[in-house]
């Protein structure tokens, strides 16, 4: 047989080359392919193939463009399995896999692409195609919101966003925390909404290198676990380099786009940048290179209220950028926490609202929004306290409360305080 007589398969981004030799089938596999500087690097493994399964001969990282490295790899395998033309097989396989990486997807007539699919995977946040970025300062509940979206995707129940696809498994790629921290948060969200994951679940992977380096493995995990939605927490470490570097940002966003399923990436921005962006251009971008925003399909900024002690957190979301249609309206989400004896949240509930009384959006808030938000946080409370917190005239607040009472949106209690209907 010749080295060109091989069978190639692609199993979730792992390229497998098989030859039938006189001593039985052998394989060379390329995994975790990544472009570094001017050469491709991969984890390359050699196997024997038997009826009971594969037998590993050798595995190591290999710079595919390095002739001495290729010779050393083939020599190492030859020690373990003789009378096989490992060097020839490797050279042919490297040539083929590099052609595949250069070629990309084959050309296709534009009108043959599916245009019947709805715009959103999770309305109004995550598109079907192209990465979505959810960004804001530390402590703005980004990770909780992302897990709420994961539950929506798994169950079809509207926890954060509305699912416009069938329920699916979700892959959480985590660079920042650990599995137990996310599991605790997920359990609290499920308890707060009294739902269960059912037939679909959240698959957790702790990430130890940049997304560019791990892209092929992530694609393999997507295939292995039938993943329909990927969350990356967060881009800061997924980039693997300085966020202001254009090349770093472009490579990371391209990797996100190649995963083949809807993606949500959490990113950061400083509080001062949020404030300055609102004041100068009424627009805020994720931290670092402009290419992070340019390559995203959607970006959403997140702010929270300033009350650090309350168990009810007001979160404001602004659709900063979209490549498809109009931007969605600004809106708020109330995040209600209940805690256990150790201070951990054992219940988290999200309530979407038209509320715009969130820092950075005060100018958009109506007095009704402001009063309802105040009652959500502080009821039962007195008229004087409401006026003091909102810095509004007593007569104006009193008249608005009366209208809210008439429309059954507020109640006047027997002790002359105000609250919300049960």
Helix content: 25-40%
In whole angstroms, the N-to-C terminal distance is 79 Å
* Strand-residue proportion: 25-35%
Mean of all residue-level pLDDT scores: 88
Number of helices: 12
Shape: elongated
Low-confidence stretches: none
Strand order of the biggest β-sheet: 11-10-12-13-8-14-15-16-17
Radius of gyration: 27 Å
The SS-based structural class is alpha/beta
The tally of beta strands, per DSSP, is 19
| Main sheet characteristics | 9 strands, mixed
Overview of this protein structure:
The protein is of the alpha/beta class. About 35% of the residues lie in helices and about 30% in strands. The chain has 12 helices and 19 strands. The protein has helices at about 65-80, 85-105, 140-155, 180-195, 210-225, 235-240, 245-255, 270-280, 290-295, 365-380, 385-390, 395-405; strands spanning about 5-10, 15-20, 25-35, 40-50, 55-65, 120-125, 125, 130-135, 160-165, 170-175, 200-205, 225-235, 265-270, 300-305, 310-320, 330-340, 345-355, 410, 420. The strands form 4 sheets. It has a 9-stranded mixed β-sheet with strand order 11-10-12-13-8-14-15-16-17, sandwiched between helices. It has a 5-stranded antiparallel β-sheet with strand order 1-2-3-4-5. A 3-stranded antiparallel β-sheet has the order 7-6-9, with helices on one face. β10 (about 170-175), α4 (about 180-195) and β11 form a beta-alpha-beta unit. α1 (about 65-80) crosses α2 and α3 (about 140-155) packs across α4. The chain is elongated. The chain starts with 6 loop residues before the first strand and ends with a strand. The model has no long low-confidence stretch (mean pLDDT about 90).
């Amino acid at each position: 047989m010749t080295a060109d007589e091989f069978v190639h398969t692609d199993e979730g981004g792992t390229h497998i080359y098989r030859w039938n030799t006189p001593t039985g089938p052998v394989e060379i596999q390329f995994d975790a392919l990544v472009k570094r500087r001017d050469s491709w690097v991969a984890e390359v493994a050699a196997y024997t193939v038997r009826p009971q399964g594969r037998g590993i001969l050798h595995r190591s990282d290999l710079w595919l463009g390095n002739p001495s490295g290729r010779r050393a790899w083939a020599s190492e395998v030859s020690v373990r399995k003789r009378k096989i033309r490992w060097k020839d097989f490797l050279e042919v396989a490297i040539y083929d896999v590099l052609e595949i990486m250069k070629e990309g997807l084959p050309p296709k007539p534009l009108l043959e692409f599916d245009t019947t699919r709805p715009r959103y995977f999770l309305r109004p946040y995550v598109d079907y195609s192209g990465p979505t970025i959810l960004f804001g300062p530390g402590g703005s509940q980004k990770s909780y919101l992302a897990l709420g979206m994961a539950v929506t995707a798994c169950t079809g129940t509207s926890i954060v966003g509305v699912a416009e696809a069938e329920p699916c498994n979700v892959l959480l790629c985590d660079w920042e925390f650990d599995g137990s921290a996310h599991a605790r948060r997920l359990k609290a969200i499920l308890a707060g909404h009294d739902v269960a994951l059912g037939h679909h679940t959240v698959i957790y992977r702790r990430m130890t290198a940049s997304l560019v380096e791990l892209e092929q493995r992530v694609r393999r995990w997507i295939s292995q676990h039938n993943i329909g939605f990927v969350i990356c927490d967060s881009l800061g470490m997924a980039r693997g380099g300085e966020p202001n570097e254009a090349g770093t940002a472009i490579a990371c966003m391209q990797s996100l786009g190649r995963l083949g399923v809807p993606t949500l990436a959490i990113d950061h921005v400083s509080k001062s940048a949020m404030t300055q962006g609102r004041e100068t251009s009424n627009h805020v971008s994720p931290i670092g290179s402009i290419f992070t925003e340019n390559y995203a399909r959607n970006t959403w900024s997140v702010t929270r209220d300033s009350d650090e002690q309350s168990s009810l957190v007001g979160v404001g979301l602004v659709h900063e950028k979209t490549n498809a249609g109009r931007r969605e309206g600004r809106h708020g989400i109330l995040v209600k926490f209940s805690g256990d004896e150790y201070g951990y949240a054992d219940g988290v509930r999200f309530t979407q609202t038209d509320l715009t009384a969130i820092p950075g959006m005060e100018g958009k808030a109506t007095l009704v929004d402001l009063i309802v938000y105040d009652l959500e946080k502080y009821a039962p409370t007195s008229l004087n306290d409401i006026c003091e917190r909102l810095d509004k005239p007593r007569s104006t607040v009193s008249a608005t409360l009366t209208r809210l009472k008439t429309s059954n949106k507020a109640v006047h209690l027997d002790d002359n305080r105000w609250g919300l209907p049960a």
